[in-house]
Automatic annotation (TrEMBL):
PANTHER family reported for this sequence: METHIONINE SYNTHASE REDUCTASE, NITRIC OXIDE SYNTHASE-RELATED
Gene that this polypeptide is encoded by: Mtrr
Source species: Picathartes gymnocephalus (White-necked rockfowl)
Coiled coil: none
Signal sequence, start to end: none
Protein name stated in the entry: Methionine synthase reductase
Length: 696
């Protein structure tokens, strides 16, 4: 413990994609300006701290992953504190504050943080500061910034009480009170805009302010609307409070030597990777469909890859070749893309515990790093924008970047950067005088994440094969992002298999399939709950519009094979509710009729939201509408027969509506009020009989 115990606090973070770590680092950087020292560790480094004996205040920043799980780095910690043998006063000595990160698009919002918070309370720990829950759906900074602002006074009060308990004299504690004052009371809604962010990078008590008078900014009189590159009053006329300039900590050296790039498996810490060939590619939608859906079949025979229907797996994908090329061009490194570079920690850096990011190889080509290691499509954080200010030559562009990362420009950042899905390339196009160094990209761009897909097959039905279905994601151009683009992984996969698809793609069966020798790298991501009932006699309902039908194809294939192999078994009824826009354009699996005919599927209910009907009574448009038409049967399966209910698909525009429909059905069929129906649904979730595999 290197920190001064008189003003020390323990800072722990648990991160999945780097956000919690970045916020913890921000807290660590700010601590010094408030006369405090943070002893910072990843929560997985349990050999470097001990909560059982910790006397100083503890600050925890923790994210949520999956459908509500703590991040992988917190699994051992959570398992340890959930030990049922621990007494209720195990952490009675502990005082802590917790900041949870999550996304309200998902059912179990901030559940990683809530789980740890609840368990610490059960074991006797006390809050010295109110728990903050930040929502990535609307912008983490709306809660994170004011939570950090209020942290300092709470910490100093906690340390003061601690010293008084220990009988220390007031002289030491009074020296602590000379640190800048911060707002203590938390109001995370209407008061957010009134909270003032002090610049942690300023020397002494100076605040970094950039007034309009300080620069020669000429704006056209017609520019009355704000945009990514243009601001209007009051932001354009305000003195700005900007975040600290993050210390640089990476050094990149070009080398004359040659060699080989690392294997892709070395970039993955989640487990074993498998390089497998694509054996089939089918376009499931017609050319005039709004979305293009593809089915790919992978050959996993001869590998140790195992899965169950309902599982997911991850595809290791590269960034776009064109985007990497453009980035190299803007950086002035077009001729050096194939040169090897050595990445190491910069000597004398002021960043605490600086180390080379695990996803960056120590030695590889520059192009390899930009293609396989960095998420160049990531929305830049404010700390990145702050660093880019220093790389921008034009005064007007510099001012606008300062505004976007400032407290005064928070709404502009949300509107023109975050909500517009702007990435680094978009910024460099919009601010052409900005020429960042390569080390800044490595420091601020997160790891290029593998993309997760639901398995759409059964190994029992198709031994040695794995199928999955996806829509090719399209991002149309916008004022902040004038270039349209496809999803990183879906665009790459579509391009990879394009030569393999049948020239005539106007059929919805498998005539458009082609064999190939193209290979992709994958690794398993088992789903602990989204599986068929262990008892085959238990009935179940599946709701999967669009590509949400994907895992249910695996369910039905598996069920069909079990029926063939075990004629003496009793099998429960099966319901499938499927929907799409047009019956003749994007009805993805018309072979569902085969499952219906052979008895594998008991009931098939379909709807088409964009088809017109000449009937007097309009047919139902959406799966939730069809569910309500089968209300008695749905209630019977769930309540009387203790069946299962599965949902797969879009969270925002479908899963919540289906959940509301189920509540209405339960309320109506039980003749109970909605509150009681919601309690029943919560019980079904708790019993793992109402299961979701959703995305936003």
């Amino acid at each position: 413990m290197c920190c001064d115990s008189k003003r020390r606090f323990l800072l722990l973070y648990a991160t999945q994609k780097g956000q919690a770590k970045a916020i913890a680092e921000e807290i660590w950087q700010q601590a010094g300006t408030h006369g405090l020292e943070a002893d910072m560790h990843c929560i997985s480094e349990m050999d470097k701290y001990n909560l059982e004996t910790e006397k100083d205040p503890v600050v925890i920043v923790i994210s949520t992953t999956g459908t509500g799980d703590p991040p992988d780095t917190a699994r051992k910690f959570v398992k340890k504190i959930q030990d049922k043998t621990l007494p209720p006063d195990h952490f009675a000595h502990l005082q802590y504050g917790l900041l949870g990160l999550g996304d309200s698009e998902y059912m179990f919002f901030c559940n990683g943080g809530r789980t740890v918070d609840r368990r610490l309370q059960e074991l006797g720990a006390q809050h010295f500061y109110d728990t903050g829950l930040a929502d990535d759906c609307v912008g983490l900074e709306l809660v994170v910034d004011p939570w950090i602002d209020g942290l300092w006074l709470a910490l100093k009060e906690a340390l003061q009480l601690q010293k008084e308990k220990e009988g220390m004299n007031n002289a030491v504690s009074s020296s602590l009170s000379t640190a800048p004052h911060a707002v203590h009371e938390l109001n995370l809604s209407s008061e957010v805009q009134n909270l003032r962010l002090e610049d942690e990078g300023a020397r002494g008590s100076d605040i970094l302010s950039q007034k309009l008078d300080d620069i020669n900014l000429v704006a056209s009189a017609r520019d009355t609307e704000p945009s990514l590159v243009h601001s209007v009053p009051p932001v354009s006329q305000s003195a700005l409070n900007v975040p600290a300039l993050p210390p640089e900590y990476i050094e990149v050296e070009f080398q004359d030597t040659q060699g080989e790039n690392p294997h892709l498996s070395s970039l993955i810490s989640e487990g074993t990777t498998f390089e497998v060939p694509v054996t089939k590619a089918v376009q499931l939608t017609r050319e005039d469909a709004i979305k293009t859906a593809l089915l790919l079949e992978l050959d996993i025979a001869g590998t140790a890859f195992e899965y169950q229907p309902g599982d997911a797996f991850c595809v290791i994908c590269p960034n776009s070749v064109n985007e990497v090329g453009e980035l190299l061009h803007i950086l002035g490194l077009s001729e050096k893309g194939d040169d090897f570079v050595c990445v190491k920690v910069k000597q004398g850096t002021k960043k605490k515990g600086a180390s080379r990011p695990q996803h960056i190889p120590e030695r590889s080509t520059l192009k390899f790093i930009l293609t396989w290691c960095l998420e160049i499509r990531a929305i830049p954080k404010k700390a990145f924008l702050r660093a880019l200010v220093e790389c921008t030559g034009d005064a007007g562009e510099k001012r606008r970047l300062q505004e976007l990362c400032s407290r005064q420009g928070a709404s502009d950042y949300t509107r023109f950067v975050r909500d517009s899905n702007v990435c680094l390339l978009d910024l460099l196009r919009a601010f052409p005088s900005c020429k960042p160094s390569l080390n800044l990209l490595i420091e601020h761009l997160p790891k290029l994440q593998a993309r997760s897909y639901s398995v759409s097959s059964s190994n029992l039905y198709q031994p040695g094969r794995l199928c999955f279905v996806f829509n090719v994601v399209e991002f149309p151009a916008s004022p902040s992002r004038p270039v349209s683009r496809k999803g990183v992984c879906t665009g790459w996969l579509a391009e990879l298999v394009a030569p393999l698809l049948h020239p005539s793609k106007n059929t919805l069966d498998t005539k458009g399939e082609s064999s190939s020798t193209e290979k992709i790298s994958i690794f398993p991501r088992p789903n602990n709950a989204f599986h068929l009932p262990a008892d085959p006699s238990v009935p179940f309902i599946m709701v999967g519009p669009g590509t949400g039908i994907s895992p249910f194809m695996g369910f039905l294939q598996h069920r069909q094979k079990l029926r063939e192999q075990h004629a003496d078994w009793e099998f429960g009824e099966t319901w499938l509710f499927f929907g799409c826009r047009h019956q003749d354009r994007d009805y993805l699996f018309k072979q569902l009729r085969c499952f219906l005919e052979n008895g594998t599927l008991t009931h098939l209910k379909v709807c088409f939201s964009r088809d017109t009907s000449a009937s007097e009574v309009a047919p139902p448009k959406y799966v939730q509408d069809v569910l309500k038409l089968s209300a008695k049967e749905v209630a019977r399966v769930l309540l009387k027969e203790r069946g299962y209910f599965y949902i797969c698909g879009d969270k925002k525009h479908m899963a919540d509506d289906v959940s509301d429909a189920v509540v209405d059905i339960l309320s109506m069929e039980m003749e109970a009020d909605k509150l009681e129906a919601m309690k029943i649904l919560a019980m079904l979730r708790e019993a793992k009989r109402y299961l979701q595999d959703v995305w936003s």
